[in-house]
Amino acid sequence: MKELKAGVTAAKGFQAAGLRAGIKAGKDNKDMAILYSEVPAVCAGTFTKNIVKAAPVLWDQEVVTQSGKAQAVIINSGIANACTGTKGYANCRKEAEIISSLLGMPREQVLVCSTGVIGVQLDMTVIQSGIENLVQAKAATAESANDVAEAILTTDTHKKEYAVECEIDGKKVVVGGMCKGSGMIHPNMGTMLAFVTSDVAIEQPLLQSILKEEIADSFNMISVDGDTSTNDTCLILCNGMAGNATLTDESEGLTTFRAALREVLIYLAKQIAGDGEGCTRLFEVTCHGASSKEEAKIISKSVVCSSLTKAAVFGKDANWGRILCAMGYSGAQFDPEKVDIILESDKGTVAIVKDGIATDYSEEYATEVLSGNPVKAILDVHAGEATATAWGCDLTYEYVKINADYRS
Amino acid sequence: MKELKAGVTAAKGFQAAGLRAGIKAGKDNKDMAILYSEVPAVCAGTFTKNIVKAAPVLWDQEVVTQSGKAQAVIINSGIANACTGTKGYANCRKEAEIISSLLGMPREQVLVCSTGVIGVQLDMTVIQSGIENLVQAKAATAESANDVAEAILTTDTHKKEYAVECEIDGKKVVVGGMCKGSGMIHPNMGTMLAFVTSDVAIEQPLLQSILKEEIADSFNMISVDGDTSTNDTCLILCNGMAGNATLTDESEGLTTFRAALREVLIYLAKQIAGDGEGCTRLFEVTCHGASSKEEAKIISKSVVCSSLTKAAVFGKDANWGRILCAMGYSGAQFDPEKVDIILESDKGTVAIVKDGIATDYSEEYATEVLSGNPVKAILDVHAGEATATAWGCDLTYEYVKINADYRS
Description:
By secondary structure, chain A is α+β, with helices and mostly antiparallel strands. Chain A has 11 helices and 15 strands. The first copy, chain A, has helices at residues 55-67, 85-103, 124-137, 142-151, 204-217, 254-274, 293-305, 307-314, 320-328, 363-370, 397-404; strands at residues 2-3, 14-19, 32-47, 69-79, 110-117, 161-168, 171-180, 193-198, 233-238, 282-290, 340-345, 348-354, 357-358, 375-380, 386-393. Chain A is globular.
């Protein structure tokens, strides 16, 4: 798979723009973005399972399930438009209508996303002029992809984008994406916001089912703080401009496209976990030898979510008791006396537990290993053949600082 | 209900001692304790649901289910005797045997508890001499109850004990208790360690079923960090020395005893939540108007466990969006647009959400309310009549500090 420079504008026929409209504090902060496909694209989406859903989530669910097509996505950061009642939803529809009239497409083909503070209404005067400027500015350049990736950030410390190229039917197919998210990250669907574009030709129902399956192994396997957001959204737009024969269930090229999509999704998901609020290191937990994939996921996610384990990673403390404890309360079934645990990073590898008991490892060397990045915990429960990986980060003073004082 | 001074020695016929054996670091730290009933007592217990169970948990489960009687409890802090394999279990049995031979009771009537670092074996020479000294020192005084309550602590900042007196059949009945716990607190049974003694006469199976029910509304409704320990144990010993007619299902006095037991359990559970590692305030969340008790529990516990909400309490930030978000991902069913939220403390009361939308409250006043202790969030989902309360604490820099560096 060949890696490309641009993110969401890497695929043919996609344009983007990101700029400051004036929603966020700080006069240099970009806070609005547009994504545009030159032709209508089939779209699919996965959304938060939180029953408190932001207005844009409700809007986008309708677009995806009813039209299954989209040509533009309008995004703002700074305000989440969540817990904003009927007025919030009306504002959301109004955004789609403004795009619709400016770019000449049905409002049912405009997706809308918001991220930021919960419970505050959008200022529609600011939004209206922001949209007008975005429509003027949109372009198919790598710079515009960068601008969009920047404009969607909140407490993130850096942009998150990625794109790969593959070949299907002798045609060059590109899959690119971007995402944002740093706190309130425990996706039960997409994460706060993720966007993938591709020029592949593919049937819409197939795209939706593939996206759902791949999300389960990527964004749904990360956690920063255990809090599932009200705005989690992952959208994919495929405009068919690569010129391949439309992918169906039967297509040979489907495996290639899925591999490209998976690579992009996992890359982006890891970017979010590794940029978790206040974190210093990405923490990757792989469970081998589980009796089913579901059990492997439950175990790896339980460890990656354990506050005590996360604090131990921050402290470079090879506290394997906490790892075993988190495996034990996960709800998965295994024999604690058959568990092996290995810690690994760019600084080395250390087997710390064999058959549920500490090995004779050196604490000093284990601390050295834990000072690397990413920190990996490799678990084997010797109960079967299934494997899964989850991603998170360490728990730091900075996380507390950020969240004790986010709104002010 | 009359509150008494002593804890576990308040009830007739109970003796205790706590002293330093030399397990913990720090030459003044008490680390071993004994609880002794002058006559065999019926006992009941609830234990961690973590499948990684410490050796003493396995031992005590056998005592409770097989003999249902106990006359002594031997406790150490500093080492949890968890993840210690067959040697750990043998050491546990050995402790019971030492007590058994010194005090002349079957080893099956000796309960054993440990708390502290996971994965380290007990030094049985230290344990043996500790037990010998405890057996000499045990007494039925308030001072000895204080010593025991101190000897069982780990990262706790203060002792936790309580006792009440009630009347059954014209007899004075006392229920007293103590507990410890500060981190790895998300009990799915008892909490790390809790002990209740009473002189009431009661049938053992009834005692077990009452304990289980009351634990569900007390210790199982607290959380410090979401990590369910390997050692959670709550034990109750009732020696019948109050002289009441043995309580059965039918007894009138049962309601009184349950009320006394509940008062002691909830008091102790709140003490643990309010002394959560690094915390500055107790956080109490009550959910009213739920469609069932189970739903009310799920909602209140989800809020009390939310890292973001806990950090907001620390920051005195009335971030109701995080509360609503945590309610939303709890898994309970309710209409977000019917939710009311009130914040309350000794500094005042403020209604911040009505029908799912922010009221026109003063942020300044809300911050004032949040500076009180305990901080209470009172939720109403207007879906039914059920109510439940959960207890936790705020998330602070100090929590991270303690847990980034616990073992060293």
